[in-house]
Amino acid sequence: MSDMPATLIAALAHNARATPDRIAFRERDYGIWQEISWAQTRDRVLAIAAGLEALGVKAGHAVIVVGDNRANLYFGMLAAMALRAYPAPIFPDVPVDQLDTYTRFGDPAVALAEDQEQVDKLVGLRERIGRPQTIVFDDPRGLSLNRPEGVMPLDALIERGQARLAAEPGLAGDLLQRAGADDIAVLLYSSGTTGLPKGIPLRHRNVMKGIANAERGGYFIRGEELFAYLPTAWVGDFVFTLSAGVALQSTVNIPERQETVPQDIRDVAPTFYLAAPRAWDNMLTRIQVGMADSTPFKRRLFDWFMPRAVELERRLLNGGTPSLGDRLMRWAGQWLVFGPIKDHLGLTRAERVFTGGEALGEDTFLFFRALGIQLKQFYGQTETCGLSAAQVEGSVKLHTVGAPMPGVDIRIDESGEILVRSDSVIDGYFDDPEASAKALSDGWLHTGDAGYLDPDGHLAVLGRVSEVVRTAQGERFIPNYIENRIKFSQYVRNVAVIGAGREELTAIVCIDFEAVGHWAEKRGIAYTSYAELALQPAVLELIAGVLVHVNTLQPEGLRIRRFANLHKDFDADDGEITRTRKLRRNVVEERYARLIDALYSGAGSLRFEAEITYEDGSRGALSRDLTIMEVPR
Hints:
Blueprint: H1 8-18, E1 23-29, E2 32-37, H2 38-54, E3 62-66, H3 71-82, E4 86-90, E5 110-113, H4 116-129, E6 134-137, E7 151-153, H5 154-167, H6 171-177, E8 184-189, E9 199-203, H7 204-216, E10 225-227, H8 235-247, E11 251-254, H9 261-268, E12 272-274, H10 277-292, H11 296-317, H12 324-345, E13 352-355, H13 362-370, E14 375-379, E15 389-390, E16 403-404, E17 408-412, E18 417-422, H14 433-439, E19 440-441, E20 444-453, E21 459-464, E22 469-470, E23 476-477, H15 479-487, E24 492-498, E25 505-511, H16 513-522, H17 530-534, H18 537-552, E26 560-565, H19 585-591, H20 593-601, E27 605-613, E28 619-630
Parallel strand pairs: 1-11, 3-4, 3-5, 5-6, 6-7, 10-11, 12-13, 13-14, 25-26
Antiparallel strand pairs: 1-2, 8-9, 14-15, 15-16, 17-18, 18-20, 19-20, 20-21, 22-23, 24-25, 26-28, 27-28
Helix pairs in contact: 1-2, 2-3, 2-5, 11-12, 11-13
């Protein structure tokens, strides 16, 4: 839009002038929702910015931000931007020995931490590499006494900043005007599936243009009720929550903690909601588990209405029209089944509901749309501010992610790679001209994804171009594409499909502990641990059934022939998946080489020892006899 401010700081200043009393942030603390207006938000951001500048934060420098969603951390991120510096958020579960990977750019001398856990990690980082010199914390619990040198409470920083603002009358206005459209708004990192994560600088003009494109297409609107629960280091939270909230004068609602998200979202009932495919799968599992434990009458209602609603939604997406009976079923189902479930999920008011990041299973997608939740898929990368293509109600297709957004061009090159051109696309990676030159050419971003545009101009995404491999017979396939189909099952959390250069395809499967655990309990199958459950003969047969179904969707030469259930889940702390749950294939294939060899040797079992990392960062091993199963033909 032509009237979109040039920067997030300019948008903040505008909101505080135009609607000073409108609620900008709402945060739950000790069960009570604390409301913060736009004027109050501006004042807190300015005080933090003045305090950070007094600590030595300069233009062009990074400010580390680590923790779960907290209003003060968001204010700190905006404060860094006001100084023409930029926040560099880190996933809160990154262990201390990996923190240097995410702090190597921008000479970060100051860090903002949520609580004692994150302070301890940052102190450990400082002891190892000498930075950050100053650590500012929000939650004082556990940090009141015996604080390490250079560790200070945010309240003290704010007081220092307020004193500066009072002593320097022109400082507030200056801080609101420094940031420019070409300044970096945030430094995020790539997933690092094939190597060291790359630094991805999103500039204010990228972010604001991306949001303007999304608003033009109706994907974003002004004045939303947003729910801030996604990881702050993910582009989805930075763009869809913080940036869209500021740019479009929405209200950002922040849960008390991650454990209270299911309750807090019911109180908020957001109008816009974004969740990753795995989160939707987990929601579906919780609903199914809850219905299985409910009264016989409720189960009968659920079992009668849901299959009919799902089938109706499938027909509607294929161009069908509802009959009078369909409309009556929907009306009655809304009162008896669909409405109560949506209320339980906190999605009664959600009108713009999206998922993205990887493929979402057809069954899961249809289920939530059958409830009356207008779930749609979007496509984007951090490099495009997460905004490239998305579905529009009325033209939703099961196997595409929608058409390009306004202001976005998408084409497919001769190798089948998806290329994107837009003002929301970055100029290049941070301090990496080689990677920048490889990814960006003549204004087009080479996404690394394979796909195609259908006759209606809708984009279908197949997987990573780099993952296109061949079997020994020359059959081309993308392991991730098959893995996603397997993970559509509620019983599978992670999987690695093996087969490049091999005669046949095999798989290493990690079960979903909650879903399989409930399945086992209903059948009287006893277990005491993930490992014991995964290796139960009945569970092996359950997973075999999942693979049999997936095989019916695959050509003969690309069917899974053998598999093993792993006695642990793939874990980001073990380096097997990224923080955004993408498989690090080279790590898995190297670490599980003995198991892979056994899958192809004809062996019926293997004693295998897997590396594990405990919550305190210490390492150990878990050894079990793994059964190698044939997939029935």
